[in-house]
Design a protein that fits this description.
single chain, 763 residues, alpha/beta, OB fold (Dihydrolipoamide Acetyltransferase, E2P), seven-stranded mixed sheet, 25 strands, 54% helix, disordered N terminus
């Protein structure tokens, strides 16, 4: 016992130091400004030094904590001086620069991107965007030069944005012309890892069937670029609670170690090989923080018996966090890092306790192992969710309540799929046909995972969306119920069974109340806050109609926001989605929406202008989901329960904005007019050819542009209220001229950028 204390005491001190350091870094990211960091660091140093002079053993923990807090704040300040400060100094400039390519370019529909390092400022990692094909053929190690337009990575669309800094990227650059590529290449081990990733990615495309290759590349290599294109599958994985299987993390590191030890056994030699391969795997997959965390913890675990030391999971977890933040303090804002450490903390603190509550004395032998499998998965999933649910709710606004059940059914196949995938890739290097046969077999496991995810996603309760405050309140209630239940002095059945039953009962009650709320009135019209774009929902009874679904200059997809809102309101499908026109800010969220909720029909102008390249994807999705396409060439009236929609003939001339479909939506005596991006000329043509007057609501044309909402038009339609769907933009929308004109004609004005979602109840 004395020996154990001597071993653990230094480890506990390390844990105190690591946790204090990490707490200071998190506080610097989320609470303190960069100006306050040196002042507070000096204060903690002075306090620590003062206590050190007292020479009291019982103060050692406090002293370690104070010095570590100072170190964390100092580390953040120094990192800022060498990264963010130089990046801000280059903000807005166009410079002739030389840089070294760090990754292979990623190709998107209209542009490509690649990570580079400036040769004159090696601390500055830059994300370079290109729209003219200058990045084609680049490889890691290439030295490029050209004129780059630079902007700081910590501001996006006018707001603070920490995603890129958390990824160790501090500048965004755009090419302004052709690039010059040097013949010579620089060499780095990270380049070698990127090349290996590229090689295996091409090999996976070669041996795996087309319907599973993108999934396997995500799982094996951390490359989700192609998987994101399969919006239906990615949505199903996310809503069923198993999207973590395609984000390289501790799960994959554990699978890799298990695979190696299965073939080589547990021995000092296999432990050393595990360490080498684990870190090669982490580097090859781009070294995400969650994988680095797992790698550090596995290193502690594998080295402990070799060094004849006892591994302490809490210490290794806290040390892993501190090491990651030491290299990049901004990584504290990385969602993957937060979820990874929260999940591991839940497993360490609660996993065993929950398992013991479920089964205190498991049967022995094969039957016992079979029965323990679902119990272990359920206990692990529940432990993970204790700390990750608040984070997913905060970052994504959604919580998958079916995740434990989904994990029970798929986790066995995920481990086999991961191991089998790497074996298939290795076999293909020796004999390609053998690799293809193994890949074909592994693909059936992948398809099984797809089927489970889609089945769970189709259930009404697969995910809860926190657009509805009632659902947010229910989650808080569930935490309270289980806390009180586990604190009660009663049988295990009562302590777990009663909170579970009450949680299910209150969830059903909350869903019923939500549904009853939207059925209690004659109808609801909601203009969603999707940023610079437009998305409108209309409810009456069980019927749902939408107008447009798109946004630009936004980090969120309009389809995600619309789908989440519809689900939170209990909507099961959309009867009709009218696309006034196909510009991205009105239509680029359609395919994502269709992946989340059934859309029965889509209406759009006949011969639509497709400058933004939306039509092909929408038509392909419509065919996949069996959605009817309706082309509007003349005035068309459709009714859906209590909703009547008149879609007006689009203009045959003028710009794309003039050729959009304008629409009047009526619920009883309440009328709303939507003019899309129609100009004053298009508005004049509309009221000249149609009898439109005595409206209640106008959705201001073209996001409040001065070229829409003409005076004669506003006077003719006679509406009381105007809603401007607008967000951050570079066009000056809404213009003061338009706002003043609306006010002059007596309109009450609401704006989504100021008021958020604007919901109108029609009673």
């Amino acid at each position: 016992m004395l020996l154990r204390q001597r071993v653990l005491l230094p480890m506990r001190k390390l844990a105190i130091a690591a946790l204090s350091f990490s707490a200071a870094v998190f506080a610097a990211n989320y609470i303190f400004g960069i100006i306050h960091c040196p002042i507070l660091a000096a204060l903690f140093l002075i306090l620590g030094a003062s206590l050190l002079l007292l020479r009291r053993k019982w103060l050692r923990g406090v002293i370690i904590c104070l010095f570590s807090l100072a170190a964390g704040l100092g580390c953040f300040g120094l990192h800022y001086l060498f990264t963010s400060a130089p990046a801000h100094a280059l903000e807005g400039q166009t410079l002739q620069l030389s840089a070294t390519v760090q990754t292979y370019p990623k190709q998107y529909e209209h542009f490509s991107s690649v990570e580079i390092k400036l040769n004159d400022s090696p601390c500055l990692r830059v994300l370079l965007y290109d729209r003219i094909g200058s990045l084609d053929g680049l490889e890691p190690g290439n030295v490029i030069s050209g004129a780059f337009k630079l902007s700081s990575a910590d501001v996006r669309y006018g707001e603070s944005y920490d995603y890129y800094n958390a990824k160790d990227i501090y500048l965004i650059a755009n090419t302004t012309g052709e690039l010059s590529v040097s013949v010579e290449k620089k060499f780095s081990l990270s380049f070698l890892a990127a090349k290996l990733n590229r090689y295996l990615s091409l090999k996976a495309d070669e041996i795996f069937p087309a319907d599973t290759a993108h999934f396997m590349k995500s799982m094996l290599l951390g490359d989700r670029t192609d998987l994101y294109q399969d919006e239906a599958l990615y949505s199903a994985l996310k809503h069923s609670g198993i999207s973590h299987i395609v984000a390289v993390s501790g799960l994959h590191v554990a699978f890799l170690v298990g695979l190696i030890q299965m073939f080589l056994g547990v021995s000092p030699k296999s432990s050393v090989l595990c360490l080498i391969l684990v870190w090669c795997f982490i580097l090859m997959t781009g070294a995400p923080p969650s994988a680095i965390r797992a790698g550090i913890m596995q290193t502690f675990l594998l080295l402990a018996p070799l060094l004849k030391r006892e591994n302490d999971s809490a210490t290794s977890l806290s040390a892993a966090l501190a090491l990651i933040l030491l290299v990049n303090p901004y990584a504290a804002a990385d969602v993957g890092l937060q979820l990874s450490f929260a999940a591991m903390a839940g497993v360490l603190l609660l996993g065993g306790r929950i398992r013991n509550l479920l089964v205190s004395k498991p049967p022995k032998g094969l039957l016992g192992r079979i029965l323990l499998y679902p119990v272990n998965i359920l206990a692990g999933s529940a432990a993970v969710m204790v700390f990750t649910v608040p984070l997913t709710a905060l970052h994504f606004g959604t919580v998958s309540v079916m995740a434990p059940l989904t994990n029970i059914f798929v986790m066995w196949s995920v481990s086999l799929c991961f191991g089998g995938g790497f074996i298939a890739c290795a076999a293909s290097l020796v004999y390609l046909p053998l690799g293809r046969i193994l890949a074909w077999l592994v693909s059936w496991l992948a398809r099984y995972i797809f089927a489970c995810a889609r089945l769970v996603d189709s259930l009404r309760l697969s995910s809860l969306y926190l657009d509805d405050r009632l659902m947010a309140g229910w989650i808080v209630l569930v935490y309270l119920l289980f806390f009180l239940g586990l604190r009660a002095r009663a049988s295990k059945l009562f302590r777990l069974g009663l909170p579970t039953a009450l949680a299910v009962l209150t969830l059903c009650l909350a869903l019923w109340m939500t549904n009853a709320y939207y059925l209690s009135a004659e109808g609801y019209i909601t203009v969603l806050d999707v940023g610079q774009g437009q998305c409108i929902t209309v409810f009456s009874g069980e019927n749902t109609v939408m107008i447009d679904c798109g946004s630009i200059y936004s980090t969120d997809n309009a389809g995600d926001r619309a789908g989440a809102y519809l689900a939170s309101c209990g909507r099961k499908s959309v009867d009709l989605l009218l696309l006034t026109h196909l510009h991205a800010d009105h239509a680029n969220g359609v395919t994502r929406l269709m992946a989340m909720i059934p859309v029965k029909a889509i209406a759009m102008p006949i011969d639509p202008n497709d400058d933004d390249g939306q039509l092909e994807e929408i038509l392909a999705a419509a065919e996949r989901y069996e959605t009817e396409i309706i082309y509007i060439s003349e005035n068309t009236v459709r009714s859906f329960g209590g909703i009547a929609m008149t879609m007006y003939e689009p203009s045959r001339s003028g710009k794309a904005n003039e050729r959009c479909v304008m629409a009047k939506v009526s619920i009883g005596d309440y009328d709303m007019l939507v003019t899309g991006d129609g100009s004053k000329e298009a508005e004049a043509e509309l009221i000249e050819n149609n009898e439109i007057s005595n409206l209640e609501l106008l959705i201001a044309g073209h996001h409040g542009s001065r070229y829409s909402s003409g005076g004669a038009f506003l006077e003719s339609i006679g509406a009381d209220t105007a809603v401007v769907s607008v967000g951050y933009n570079t066009y000056g929308h809404p213009t003061n001229e338009t706002l003043e004109r609306l006010a002059a004609y007596g309109y009450t004005i609401y704006r989504t950028d100021l008021n958020g979602n604007i919901e109108i109840c029609i009673s």
